[in-house]
Protein 1
Amino acid sequence: MSSAYLGAGTLNAQLSERLARQERLRYRRAGKADIPAMTRIRLAVTENRLSDPGKITPQMYHDYLDRLGRGWVALLGDQVVGFAYADRPNAGVWALFVDPAYQGLGAGKVLLKMTVQWLFAEGAETVRLTTEVGTRAEGFYRAQGWQPGPVDAQGERSFLLRR
């Protein structure tokens, strides 16, 4: 058997596993019990890292569950593998993060869509977000149809999505 054939078999097995994982993803509204998992994911990402991890507090996660917005989680089995938060007062995406071990399964796309749809249903005409320049996230938002805006002093690019 050729090594190319063996490599294709490995690739097919990896693709099959990835598709199976995508099919097992579930989504639901985030709750207080999800805050530790969301914090773990936020601190595990390799891009858009927090310069000061204490800057985002458990209380902030709690506030965006309902009072200031709405949050959702992506689950694989019982494990939270991603989350997103809508920021109602600013018509924005406060957070969208997927555990690095589970990126590429489509959870980010679904979570972003849920967040945007909720903000539009709440009356927003335009939804906003920011992300670090030169990251995969920047390309992700462009690919989802978001319009890039200026870069701020902290190196964050703004993006807009109109209804």
Note: The beta strands are 25-29, 69-76, 79-87, 92-98, 126-132, 147-151, 156-162.
Protein 2
Amino acid sequence: MTRTPSIPLLVWLVAVWVALWEQVSPANVASGLVVALVVLTLFPLGPRDRSARVRPAAALRFLVYFAWKLVEASAIVAWEVVTPRNRINEGIVAIPIRGVSDVVITVVANAISLTPGTLTLEARRSPAVLYVHVLHLRDVEEVRRETLHLEALAIRAFGPPEVAAALASEGDSAVASPPPSTATRAPRSGGQEGRP
């Protein structure tokens, strides 16, 4: 089954093409239409996740929490750089998450990767697990708790309405009780132990 290209997306791609040429002409519009059709045919968009909703108040809470974690992690990494003592204790943690939608998984994985000192290495959909590299790994359970808290905030801000409502009714107890755990730790303290 082939999907017909979205008209607004087609118009947008043609407009971008014409803007890149910096001149509106019949030839630019026609070539933009051809290029847009080829692009949309060769690289069709998948089905859109219609369960995602943006809730402004919850999105603001998510952004404030993320900004705080960003500042906190930046300060820790900056301190590590300017001090002579090496306190790096890196590891990879597998964190089972709720995985309620692709949108939420993507938001959480990208928020983790944007935070200095952490990087999402892999996101699995079934079962929903994030593999996160942590530069300053002290406690695996703390990494799990913080990631699940971030996911709960993302669900409340961008998740399906029924899941966000269920999570809101559970309160912070939902964050304290994560899904079944398969988290692992692979410590490597500042290059002192053998690297794989």
Note: Residues 14 and 156 are 36 Å apart (CA to CA).
Protein 3
Amino acid sequence: MSQPQPRYEPPKPWLKLPPREVLACIAIVSVLATILYPVIRQAQDMARQVSCLSNVRSRSGALLQYATDNDNSLPPASQWQTASSRYLKEEKGPCPAISPPAPDVLGYAMDSRLSGRSLERIGAPHDQRILLYESSKLTQDAHDPGISFVVRHGYGTITFVDGHSWGRKQEPGEQLVRKGTL
């Protein structure tokens, strides 16, 4: 005798919800997404700020190492990027606010008034003299006497000759850089 063939039964949905409850679930998920999106966006912005500050701090540390190896003299401003690259363990990228990133573009500039100068001959106290800063110039080895300073991602990132760096939120109408220091 042959065995009877089992009848085909379509798969049963594992959860039966009325349309009203499905709409309620969708509404709850959309409210949660609306609440979480700004928080996630803020976390991404903070990560970019920290990355930018880390990049400029590493570059300035490399420039100070260069100066130590070269009779306490900073490199020529037209070659600061190349000079600092030799002292970095891993290549630091551009400011994360620059998109799309282009090759050899950092978004930072060196104060050209410090070009080739000895650290002992820099006039202002080292904790007030700016070495690297965020710049609107997007060329390799960007340098100028501070006129291209720009605030990206709401913070101005600056590194001083003594090696400390800061990124401070700009308040409306506030100048981040005092006259005489940049």
Note: The beta strands are 108-111, 130-134, 143-144, 155-160, 165-169.
